[in-house]
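Incident log, support desk, overnight shift.

02:14 A customer reports that sequence design results differ from what the structure should imply. Their input is reproduced verbatim below. On-call engineer (initials T.W.) acknowledged and began investigating.
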């Protein structure tokens, strides 16, 4: 083979490897534990939502969480949009929160929606014990 043909073959193989890596990273599925618990900071205390639905924008149907609940949500890709609907005792929507986050921002597999909905307060994500 000529050196030029070898170079073209190496370029094609490299391109295919890069496309495979990008496809893997963008299509990677992760499971996160979503919880609805009260949250305290040095400045304020945030009570848990009475009830909430939590889902991914364009994803599977949302999950329903009452105060103190934890459930599993499957996320795909590296960046996500979480939709949180705070519900009252009659299951009417009181507030809607739209929160963007990336996998690199996660400190662990657990996400508390209360500090996340109030502006990503420190401690909104932590490792599973």
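02:41 Re-run completed on a clean worker. Output:
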């Amino acid at each position: 083979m000529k050196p030029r043909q070898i170079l073209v073959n190496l370029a094609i193989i490299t391109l295919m490897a890069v496309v495979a890596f990008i496809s893997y990273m963008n299509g990677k599925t992760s499971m996160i534990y979503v919880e609805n618990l009260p949250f305290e900071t040095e400045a304020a205390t945030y009570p848990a939502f009475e009830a909430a639905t939590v889902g991914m924008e364009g994803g599977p149907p949302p999950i329903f969480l009452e105060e103190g609940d934890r459930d599993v949500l499957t996320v795909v890709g590296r960046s996500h949009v979480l939709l949180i609907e705070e519900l009252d005792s009659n299951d009417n929507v009181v507030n809607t929160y739209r929160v963007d986050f990336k996998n690199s921002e996660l400190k662990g597999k657990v996400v508390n929606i209360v500090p996340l909905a109030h502006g990503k307060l420190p401690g909104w994500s932590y490792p599973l014990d």
